[in-house]
Design goal:
The protein is α/β, with parallel strands linked by helices and 1006 residues long. Helices cover 25% and strands 20% of the residues. It is globular, with a radius of gyration of 34 Å. The relative contact order is 0.09. The N terminus is likely disordered.
């Protein structure tokens, strides 16, 4: 990428205050101008008076008198009086250089950044030519939509925005950009109109590049290894002096991955294990030829001066649980919120004292300079106070640092606001802030924004009180909201997905898109050049394959500073039909009700099972399905699913496979978890998850899943080694355990890979060997004997392609064994493109978990992440023969299912299926989508979270899980979906749930 440079003013190393510039004016504290002292030439005499070595060498009074006389004569001829204050030779003084440096620091304390520094590019990238994008639908990042608009990108900026730009206008804009961009001719880059690349957007949406306000890219690199983990310096809780720029690995594979999601700017923050983690750095995501982290910096080349002023600095602090947890592990303070508060105040106090000492020095220096001019240093006994460890914090107190604070709870937020007022600093944003909506007026009053997730929550106590409607609440109170990734906590490639989900939960689409563009740019302090489509802004621009807030939207082109970072083939434009505000189903129930009989009428599509899509009605009596289709006679309470505007689509209840639902509520709170099964215990008593299962009202993980239409969960025991035990299938909406369990023994679960290394099996070599021996020696009543006989599937969590092949080969030694490869990040590499026989044929099923994999670990580095060239991993497996046994549960067959890794994300399981159907196959000529193939892909995606998940894990089909079958328990989900739109899209919402006799209408997520 081109190096970013800025127009310069006075360089601190250009001789200001040096001895060779006796005419140089002396800066005075608090003044932006430079004032001339009447004593400006007295420094030659000062050397004499200071005993600079001449008088010492002669060592006689006569020589001293002679020197003084010479100084007097010199002063007389220069018209400047000798200072009147006598000084003793042994009085402490500082050098002229030290004084000048201190005065320079005093002046710098009052220097502020300019509104719009002049930047330009030297053009060291191979594709740094002018680009004209024609006929775009522009989302400008401020909520405005400009249709049929042209954009000119040149010299690193958006040089022109308008309709039907003529070539003459374009040529003139290129010339003007060239002139304004260059500080001098040595940096001038000349382009002619012949260098212009023209791209016809054909009405596609063009937006500013996305801005991520919270990332650890480059400091917590992919894959996660000890040697590349540099996010936290945990040796002390207070490290404001650390700098993220010192840790960024520019070779982190996440850089191009994140760029492929349209993110062009990221604020890279230190971690949150410390109260004060250090300074952050804002970077562009297109790596440079130099491979130097500094060349990624947004403020590359800005060192201060008359035109540019000072560039912003950023700092990360954290309150709440994380610093407490670090203290508890190390046995040092803090271990409580009281400890957090005191350490904050003590360190702020130390920095405040340093600032006061500096101001006192500057005031004394100012008085001395006014009175004594060039002799002023003889009247200052100490150097300018500096303490490197506190310099960053002092800069914060002076207003030069934008502070980002990791804070969740109201008490932590209020504590930081108290500190803000006590010590006089500003807070830019509270990050994560899951409970910030509870104190929204406070944030609005303090002008503090919130950088949050859309729905990621419940993972620890301070993330437990959460609402998917927090963005609406905050926005309504006047608080600016940004969505961020906290990469790699969430893969920043999917930053836009946070905005998409927020819209799904009710946030204004304009507000949601601003939350990943102009708002984070402004809160980082670069809103004058990033986050908008506007003339003179950085040429960070994205062309999308579909409207960005539609599920699966991904970039076709990404430009960073005008250079092409991502270039994909232009596929046909995809626009989902708008869905009007949903009308409630008839006979809306105020609360869950148990009905002896009910009917769901006028359903446009009923996904009843593999290859079966019906329409009409579903009739339920005594909790069981008694009729499906257009011929049914309605019974009991009738819910009419039709309507003039909304045509509902109906699917069966979804299945969450291989999660901890029912065995844990808050993953980081042991008291809320069942506990961990070690391999020895699992083998001794063979752990059954049913024995640890807990259900009922008040468990948010289960409530979120149920309201989202995930009516069944298959949960193995929580484990730490190779062998986990036997999973259980249960109803997520059950009020009592006696009503919850659907199938007590579902599958035997084991793990192969780095995550399973423990003393019992410390290597993959031993893990595979242990599993081979266990299967070979399996005898009743061990559940492994049921695995070998084919009664129960063997579900193996394994990701590395080589390890997958080992497990498949091991399973092949037992002809009846039904294998489920779970996790399966590298499984797509083993799929045969033509669907022929391969390692994953026969009785091998695949459970992609997560479905959108991330190459974040060594074992998952072979995964195929989103936006990789088609086909997707799901499609490679589907077209490669996995899932050809759909519907053949119980006795074998191959099945393709998907699940999620985080339990709080189970409520997004339907959307994860939607991701798999979001990129339909193309026709052979590449001119259009294969619409028949798209329908098949959508049906496969629906199946992947319903019947395929149930069949892969061996749930008896007679139980009706993942299907709508007459004579089975009702598992019903009604979605509103306009004709032609996918029931898996963001625009579809769950309107009704039927779980046996229980009916819930309009279930809402908290």
């Amino acid at each position: 990428m081109a190096q970013r440079r800025y127009a310069r003013g006075v360089d601190p190393d250009d001789g200001v205050g040096g001895r060779d510039e006796e005419e140089q004016r002396l800066p005075l504290l608090g003044s932006s101008s430079l004032r001339t002292s009447p004593h400006r030439r007295c420094w030659r005499c000062r050397d004499c008076l200071a005993g600079n070595g001449v008088s010492t060498a002669f060592g006689t009074i006569a020589v001293a008198v002679a020197v003084l006389w010479a100084c007097a004569i010199f002063t007389l001829f220069n018209g400047i009086p000798v200072p009147h204050t006598p000084r003793r030779a042994d009085d402490p003084v500082i050098t002229r250089e030290a004084f000048d440096r201190g005065v320079h620091e005093c002046a710098a304390n009052f220097e502020k950044g300019s509104v719009n520094p002049v930047d330009f590019l030297t053009g060291d990238a191979p594709n740094g030519h002018p680009i004209l994008i024609r006929n775009a639908t522009v989302w400008d990042g401020l909520g405005n939509i400009l249709v049929e608009t042209d954009l000119l990108l040149t010299h690193g900026i958006i040089a022109k925005v308008g309709r039907n730009l003529s070539l003459a206008t374009v040529s003139d804009a290129i010339r003007k950009a060239e002139i304004s961009a260059a500080v001098d001719d040595s940096y001038r880059t000349h382009f002619a109109i012949d260098d212009l690349e023209v791209i016809d957007a054909a009405g596609r949406v063009v937006t500013p590049g996305l801005v991520d306000q919270h990332s650890h890219v480059g400091t917590d690199s992919f894959p996660k290894l000890t040697g590349s983990s540099d996010t936290n310096e945990v040796s002390s809780p207070l490290n404001p002096q650390l700098r993220a720029i010192d840790a960024i690995d520019i070779l982190d594979p996440a850089f191009p991955l994140i760029l492929s999601g349209g993110v062009t700017t990221s604020l890279v923050l230190p971690g949150s294990a410390l109260l004060m983690g250090g300074e952050a750095v804002a970077v562009k995501m297109l790596t440079t030829r130099t491979n130097l982290p500094e060349d990624l910096a947004v403020d590359r080349g800005m060192r201060g001066g008359q035109r540019d002023g000072r560039s912003w600095r950023w700092m990360k602090m954290a309150c709440g649980e994380n610093p407490k947890r670090r203290g508890a592990r190390s046995g040092t303070m803090p271990t409580s919120r009281m400890g957090n508060g005191w350490l904050f105040r003590s360190h702020f106090g130390a920095a405040s004292k340093l600032v006061q000492d500096q101001d006192d020095w500057c005031e004394a220096a100012n008085r001395a300079a006014t009175k004594y001019g060039r002799q002023a240093h003889l009247h200052i006994s100490k150097r300018y106070p500096e303490e490197l460890a506190l310099e960053s914090l002092a800069a914060l107190l002076r207003g030069d640092v934008r502070l980002q604070v990791h804070c969740y709870d109201p008490q932590d937020i209020e504590m930081m606001v108290r500190n803000k007022h006590e010590f006089g600093f500003n807070i830019t944003s509270f990050h994560h802030a899951t409970e910030a909506h509870l104190v929204a007026p406070l944030l609005a009053r303090e002008n503090i924004s919130a950088a949050i997730f859309a729905d990621h929550s419940l993972f620890k106590h301070e993330a437990y009180v959460h609402s998917v409607r927090a963005p609406q609440i905050l926005h309504a109170a006047g608080v600016r909201v940004a969505f961020k990734s906290d990469h790699p906590v969430l893969n920043a490639q999917n930053l836009l997905y946070e905005a998409q989900k927020a819209v799904h939960y009710g946030l204004d689409p304009k507000v949601a898109f601003m939350a990943v563009t102009s708002v984070p740019a402004e809160r980082i302090g670069i809103g004058w050049r990033v986050g908008r489509i506007q003339e003179a802004y950085d040429a960070d621009v994205v062309i999308w394959d579909r409207p960005p807030l539609d599920l699966g939207a991904h970039p076709l082109r990404v430009f960073v500073d005008g250079f092409t970072g991502v270039s994909a083939p232009f596929t046909p434009i995809r626009n989902e039909p708008d869905i009007p505000a949903a009308e409630p189903v008839i006979s809306v129930l105020k609360s869950p009700s148990k009905l002896p009989a009910y009917s769901l009428a006028n359903a446009s599509a009923i996904y009843a099972g593999p290859g079966v899509v019906l329409s009409g009605a579903v009739v339920v009596r005594d909790g069981d399905v008694v009729c499906v289709g257009s011929h049914c006679s309605l019974e009991g309470s009738v819910f009419d699913l039709g309507g003039a505007k909304v045509i509902p689509t109906f699917i069966q209840g979804m299945v969450a496979a291989n999660t901890i639902l029912g065995l844990g509520e808050i993953p980081m709170e042991p008291a809320t978890l069942d506990g961990t099964v070690d391999p020895v215990s699992a083998l001794a008593g063979f752990a059954h998850a049913a024995d640890g299962l807990r259900v009922g009202p008040g468990l948010k993980q289960l409530e979120y899943a149920f309201r989202a239409g995930v009516l069944t969960a298959v949960t193995p025991p929580r484990h730490s080694g190779v062998v986990a035990g036997v999973s259980v299938a249960f109803r997520t909406g059950a009020a009592h355990l006696r009503d919850a369990i659907i199938q007590r023994d579902v599958a035997v679960h084991v793990t192969i890979g780095a995550a399973a290394k423990d003393p019992w099996a410390p290597s993959v070599t031993v893990q595979v060997g242990r599993l081979r021996a266990l299967l070979a020696d399996a005898q009743p009543p061990s559940p492994l004997a049921r695995v070998v006989s084919g009664e129960l599937p063997l579900a193996v969590d394994v990701n590395d392609p080589s390890d997958i092949e080992k497990v498949v080969a091991l399973a092949a030694n037992h002809p009846r064994l039904r294998l489920v490869v779970a996790g399966a990040a590298g499984a797509w590499t083993l799929a045969e493109p033509d669907g022929g026989a391969g390692p994953l044929s026969g009785n091998v099923s695949v459970l992609l978990q997560p479905a959108r994999c991330v190459p974040s670990t060594w074992d998952t580095r072979a995964c195929r992440p989103p936006f990789a060239p088609a086909p997707t991993a799901f499609q490679r497996l589907l077209y490669g023969g996995v899932g050809v046994g759909s519907g053949s549960s119980g006795s074998g067959g191959s099945h393709l299912a998907i699940s999620v890794a985080e339990p709080d994300q189970v409520r997004s399981l339907r959307l994860e299926a939607g991701w798999q159907a979001a990129e339909p196959p193309m026709l052979a000529d590449g001119d259009d989508y294969d619409h028949d193939g798209a329908s098949q892909l959508e049906a496969a995606a629906v199946g992947a979270v319903t019947w395929e998940a149930a069949d892969a894990l061996g749930i008896d089909p007679k139980l009706g899980v993942g299907r709508v079958l007459v004579g089975t328990h009702a598992n019903l989900v009604v979605l509103d979906s306009r004709a032609g739109a996918s029931p898996l899209s963001l625009r579809a919402h769950v309107r009704l749930l039927g779980d046996g006799r229980t009916v819930v209408t309009e279930p809402l997520q908290d």
